[in-house]
Amino acid sequence: MDPDDLVIRPARPDEADILSHIIFRAGTDWNYPRGLMDYCSEAGELSISSEEIEANPTYVVEDGEDGEILGFYSIKPTDDCGCAITNLCVLPEYVGTEMRAALFLHACELAETSGAEYLDVVSDPGAAQFYEEMGAERIGERVERSSIGRRALPVLRLNL
Fold it and tell me: Model pTM?
């Protein structure tokens, strides 16, 4: 796909199911067992709601030719002078393309123009290298409890 054919636009609340499906598909790319993915999905851990889309800046990337949504991100302000990415997902077949980088750079620009001094990411362990390649640095770990138990997730920060 030609990067010039990509369109990044604000997500609509009625696209929550499509975006939740992208989260699920992205998770399957990290080779988590299907049963585990189904369990987490049913527990609501692999989804985004229309309320979340309305409350936080959320953008989709779509194919400019047919309008298919191929990925998305959402950010929210932190308690201080920063923002945090709460989702950045692309369909598995686009992980190695420029699409994920384009979404990340768009999120950085949006955060910076809103006055943020940094952008934090709590990353899936498999995606941490991508954020490091984009210039983010590991600043710690966050232990997360979920339906699959406890796991340590890398926390990365990009100063804007």
Answer: 0.88
